[in-house]
Amino acid sequence: MYCSYVRQLADALSYCHAKRVIHRDIKPENILLDQKGNVKIADFGWAVVASHSRRQTVCGTLDYLPPEMISGKSHDHTVDNWAIGVLLYEMLVGKPPFEYSDQSQTLQAIMHCRFIVSA
């Protein structure tokens, strides 16, 4: 079941990226399912139609932000790919990989890709 959702999400984002659209806020709240189990992406509020240049804006939801965005580096559509990985982890484990009670700890964990795999 999870594999189907992730595949559908990846396909939908691939379509968006082919149209030069970067969503930049992929998270569970923005993934909808219809009655047949088809994935729909919602809330394009942070989305941008990107030209060939890379983006600089830090936006999205903390637990799903990639290291390059947190560090202020430019980014492209691959920020959505990072978020798919975070979502898959959350589907399998039940919580985001970089979830801490303190925002600065969360930022540091993401920057250093430091997470604990539950047994």
From TrEMBL:
Q: Where is the Protein kinase domain?
A: 1-119
Q: Per the record, what are the reactions this protein catalyses?
A: L-seryl-[protein] + ATP = O-phospho-L-seryl-[protein] + ADP + H(+); L-threonyl-[protein] + ATP = O-phospho-L-threonyl-[protein] + ADP + H(+)
SMART domains noted in UniProt? S_TKc
Q: Where does ATP bind?
A: E29, N30, D43
Q: Which UniProt keywords apply?
A: ATP-binding, Kinase, Nucleotide-binding, Serine/threonine-protein kinase, Transferase
Crosslink site: Glycyl lysine isopeptide (Lys-Gly) (interchain with G-Cter in SUMO2): K27
* InterPro entries (alphabetical): Aur-like, Kinase-like_dom_sf, Prot_kinase_dom, Ser/Thr_kinase_AS
Task: Enumerate the active-site residues.
Answer: D25 (proton acceptor)
The UniProt entry, under PROSITE patterns, shows: PROTEIN_KINASE_DOM, PROTEIN_KINASE_ST
Quote one Gene Ontology molecular function term.
ATP binding
This protein is called: Protein kinase domain-containing protein
The root-end lineage is: Eukaryota, Metazoa, Ecdysozoa, Nematoda, Chromadorea
